[in-house]
Amino acid sequence: MLSLARVEVAIQGARILRGVELVVPEGGRVALVGRNGAGKTTTLRAIMGLVPLSGGTIRFDGRDLARVSPHRRTALGIGYAPEDRRLFPSFTVEENVRLPAEVLGLPRGEVRARLERVWELLPELLELRDRRAGALSGGQGKMAALARALVTGTRLLLLDEPFQGLAPALARRYGEILARLVARERAMALLVSESNPELLRPFVDRVATIERGEITNETTAPASTG
To answer: What is the CATH number of the domain that holds 52?
Structure first.
């Protein structure tokens, strides 16, 4: 489904990604693990077209994403929840969540169906849907960013450091949501970045380690014992 081949990214003359090779098959659940500054966020941004490639290719269903404008990549069924959430603070939660569907011009019935899917998975957000995003806590904002990504992420979901900054109770809740999501959406692929691989054990099947912009190791994720 998603494949990165010899991907290179340089920012202000500094090489950030150095020949990244990574494959996420249909229904695959892959953790991209590394220290801060290893290249995790840049990898996800490159997939979304938010940073230009200086070499290599990124393909989705065999299609070269370099030929797809960044704002059109969500139309392929890709959802992206960035580390910093990037919600519009003056919009309500529902307005933020439904915005990608509106931008894509989806029919009203389809927008409604996708919102229902999101509220069913995240009932706590349904209670907050009329609240301004600027009034959300950090954890609530993470949930809203996940919900927005799910509106377009029908085939591939990219999550960047979803557990960062979450209190333990919210981190557990976020993990429960992801575990339920991958159990229910078996054809949907997941690529999630994280510094601590232990947080991802319950819902990934492969772990790719990135160091200094290179994938240095790939292993099968051990089964969760919890």
So the answer is: 3.40.50.300
pLDDT (0 to 100) of residue 222: 64
Determine the Cα–Cα distance for residues 100 and 32; give it in Å rounded to an integer.
25
Tens of pLDDT, residues 113-158: 999 999 999 999 999 999 999 999 988 999 999 999 999 999 999 9
Strands 189-194 and 156-160, bridge-based pairing: parallel
Q: Give the pLDDT score at 226.
A: 44
Strand order in the sheet with 214-220: 78-81, 156-160, 189-194, 29-33, 206-211, 214-220
Residue 226: inside a domain, yes or no?
Answer: no
Considering only CA atoms, which of 149, 216, 214, 185 is closest in space to residue 203? Answer: 185
C-beta of residue 164 within 8 angstroms of C-beta of residue 36: no
Average pLDDT, the chain: 93
Q: Give the CA diameter of the chain.
A: 47
State how many domains the chain has. Answer: 1
Instruction: Report pTM.
Output: 0.93
* Sign of the dihedral defined by the CA atoms of residues 145, 105, 117, 185, in that order: negative
Do residues 92 and 137 make contact, with C-beta atoms less than 8 angstroms apart? Answer: no
